[in-house]
Amino acid sequence: MENKRILFIGAHTDDIEYCAGGTMFKLKENNEIHCIAFSKCSDSVPERFSKDVLKHEFESAMLFLNPKSFKLYDFQVRKFPEHRQAILEILYKVNKELNPDVIFCVNDNHQDHKVIGEECERAFRRKTLINFAIPKNGQKHNMAVSLRDSDVLNKLKLTSYYKSQEYIRGNNEDQDRIIMQYNGYISGNENAELFHIKYLNYE
Ligand SMILES: [Zn+2]
Is the overall model pTM greater than 0.90, yes or no? Predict the structure, then answer.
């Protein structure tokens, strides 16, 4: 992929980093990268952290990634189904103003991820739309992005900004490394991230 405007969309801060961090670094070299997250998840932050901690962690991660643009909205976590129309209108506006060539987004059984996945299908009709595929969630993949050593190291650094999420994901750089190796193993690469192409625009 070269000279494309590529948009990565997560429901929550850290979705795009964990699902596609290495891919973002790889694609950034020859493409224009933009990032959006729709919730800073104030309601699921552990008590010892400030309610805004995920906003700060997202901003730090984005400063390290250095995309062309990034934006964080503040929808309430787990309540996306109640805000479907507002989310769709934001996506329509993004499509009109940014006009991305390729969109990567979440789309799985989590209620917020599902809303983003479904509304992206509406908003980015006829554009190449690619979903994150997480084998742990039973998601099938039909595309693997092979990661270079530098992409692996950059992804580990990117996800390390999310200290407040270690209680969920574990403070485990090894785990992230093993997942990239496992995804590589099942796709015939050394290290990889997996995706599901929903719609391919051949134009
Ligand atoms: Zn999420």
Answer: yes
